[in-house]
Design brief:
Structural class: mainly alpha
Strand content: under 5%
Largest sheet: none
Number of strands: 0
Radius of gyration: 19 Å
Distance between the termini: 42 Å
Number of helices: 16
Shape: globular
Order of helices and strands: HHHHHHHHHHHHHHHH
């Protein structure tokens, strides 16, 4: 039933012309880093069409940066699926995996990537840092830390089948859904850096909150059947049903209302940006960075929603069934 729900994201769709190039380069990158190898894994992965997701979300990226974007998307999904199995219900084991990746994000000298996933992430993070300021790198590293650190908490609740309170669910999903780290890439992939005074303004903070929350709320609706079949309790619909003692239909209506309110707030504060730039005394280049950043958030919101509506990932057979691990190949072993 949730698969038939739609969300209204009132921004114009855009598309990157380098889609085919990035798709080809991505498969080469995945094979080179051991992220996919067998034909079954390749076929399953290609059915999700993550190059389409990247092209919709990052329409202004050049060919090299769109390739980086597709590689990032592939890492997020393939890494996340590694915990849809026995290891995903073992919090200490999950914490050990994520501790290594957090060390890579912070460039700890004593961290050596041991698994396929860790080596792929080390490559991605080096490419992400290229050309960016030390301030952006520090911020992005913290986003990655929060992403990886969220997984042990999801594992804890999954192992006990304890439904998290709504506030807890929202906080953990902001990390584990990867949307915070994706939003952090808006500057990198659009080759801009927002002046710090503007970046931390209430307007851009509220717009980022929408860009973080709306994609994972919609994702939790679209993936509800897949996730709950595995006993996953970190899903907005699960928490809404528990918090309000309501039916699935009512939980979906509440999730849609959350999205609508958040998008309405985004539109309201976006209209304040020209006045904000003037009040802060930004020059033309700084003003352009702020407005392009806002446009990047819009592209991400619209592109992600459009991709979720068409990808095979959330259709029956889009991932392995609940009686099997949620991945075609293990990426967390050493070797």
């Amino acid at each position: 039933m949730p698969r038939n729900v739609t969300f209204t994201i009132p921004f114009p769709p855009r598309y990157n012309p380098h889609y085919s190039h990035a798709q080809r380069k991505n498969l080469d990158w995945l094979r080179r880093h051991g992220m996919v190898s067998g034909q079954q894994a390749v076929d399953l992965y290609l059915s999700w069409d993550l190059a389409d997701l990247a092209a919709r979300c990052w329409p202004e990226a050049d060919a090299a940066d769109l390739s980086l974007t597709v590689d990032l998307k592939s890492f997020y999904f393939l890494f996340d699926d590694q915990f849809d199995g026995p290891q995903g219900s073992d919090p200490p084991a999950v914490a050990e995996v994520c501790h290594e990746l957090i060390g890579i994000a912070h460039q700890d000298a004593d961290t050596t990537p041991r698994s396929a996933a860790a080596r792929a992430f080390a490559d991605l993070w080096a490419r992400c840092r290229s050309g960016m300021s030390s301030a952006w790198i520090a911020r992005a590293a913290c986003d990655w830390e929060r992403y990886f650190a969220s997984y042990p908490y999801e594992s804890w609740h999954r192992s006990t089948r304890q439904v998290p309170a709504m506030d807890d669910c929202l906080e953990i999903r902001r990390g584990s859904a990867a949307t915070e780290s994706v939003v952090g890439m808006v500057e990198r992939l659009n080759r801009i850096e927002v002046p710090r005074t503007a970046f931390h303004s209430p307007q851009l903070r509220l717009m980022r909150r929408t860009a973080v929350d709306v994609p994972f709320i919609a994702n939790d609706v679209y993936s509800y059947e897949k996730e709950t079949a595995r006993g996953d309790v970190y899903d907005i619909l699960v928490s809404l049903q528990d918090a309000h003692a309501c039916t699935l239909d009512e939980a979906v209506r509440r999730a849609r209302a959350m999205v609508d309110r958040s998008v309405d707030r985004f539109l309201r504060v976006r209209s304040e940006l020209p006045r904000l730039c003037g009040a802060l005394g930004l020059d033309d280049a700084e003003r352009d960075a702020v407005l392009r950043y806002a446009k990047g958030l819009e592209d991400w919101l619209r592109g992600h929603n459009d991709w979720m509506m068409r990808t095979a990932r959330y259709a029956p057979g889009g991932t392995p069934g609940p009686d099997r691990p949620g991945y075609a190949e293990s990426l967390l072993g050493t070797g």
